[in-house]
Amino acid sequence: MKISTSFLTSRNIPRDLGILNDTDTDFIHVDVMDGKFVKNKTMPFKEMKNIYKYTSKRLDVHLMVKKPSKYIKDYATLNTAYLTIHIEAEEDLDMLLELIKSYGIKCGISIRPSTDLELLRPYLKKVDLILLMSVEPGQGGQSFLEDTQDRLKELKQMCKEEKSHCLISVDGGINDETKKFVKGADILVSGSYVINSYDFQNAIDDLR
Ligand code: DX5
Ligand code: ZN
């Protein structure tokens, strides 16, 4: 099981990224919010890009924005492994996926808890990753939505039917209790459970 750690709820990002750099987290999950797709807004990229000098881990970027193209161009300049857009975004999805691929970065699509999974079907062969939301996107520290368990099963079945080899990542409310609901996932995104713990490595070990 791979772990992608989100620092969204960190109160000291340079310090926490430094500590995470010495753990075996596989990725740093970067939550980007535009104040339109979701209510909250994260700091401008100009400031964000200075923060990433505190980590040599690869980034797993989650764009919770209405119009991802300009964010894709920005994050493509960093050490980004995955760039994930939302199926509910307001630009052409095929264009966005091609844009991500043009930078040699792996592409993902994320889906809100209330959106019909069938909308993903045409894209399953075109993406490297599906980021299944297990909370409403917009903030860290929320409770895991238990019907994610059934959505994960349905998504895995669809991937099988479409002969897709994309990875499945689950994001939101993941901790040592809720991880049992998402056993079939390839990557777990965890924010507050890791960041609020005394020992980041211990918390990561508990999730694997
Ligand atoms: C929610 C974000 C998540 C969140 C995860 O909008 O996409 O990545 O930060 O944090 P926890 O683990 O606290 O739910
Ligand atoms: Zn996220």
Give a structural overview:
With 208 residues, this protein is an alpha/beta fold. The chain has one domain: Alpha-Beta Barrel (TIM Barrel). The protein has seven helices and eight strands. The chain has helices at 13-21, 45-51, 69-75, 93-102, 148-161, 192-195, 200-207; strands at residues 2-6, 27-33, 59-64, 80-86, 106-111, 129-133, 167-171, 187-190. It has an eight-stranded parallel β-barrel with strand order 1-2-3-4-5-6-7-8. Strand 1, helix 1 (13-21) and strand 2 (27-33) form a beta-alpha-beta unit. It starts with a strand and ends with a helix. Residues 6, 29, 31, 62, 171, 189 line the site of zinc ion.
Using brief descriptors, characterize the structure shown.
208 residues; alpha/beta; TIM Barrel; eight-stranded parallel β-barrel; 8 strands; globular; binds D-xylitol-5-phosphate; binds zinc ion
What's the main sheet like? 8 strands, parallel, barrel
Portion of residues within helices: 25-40%
Q: What gyration radius follows from the Cα positions, in whole Å? A: 16 Å
The CATH architecture can be given as Alpha-Beta Barrel
Low-confidence stretches: none
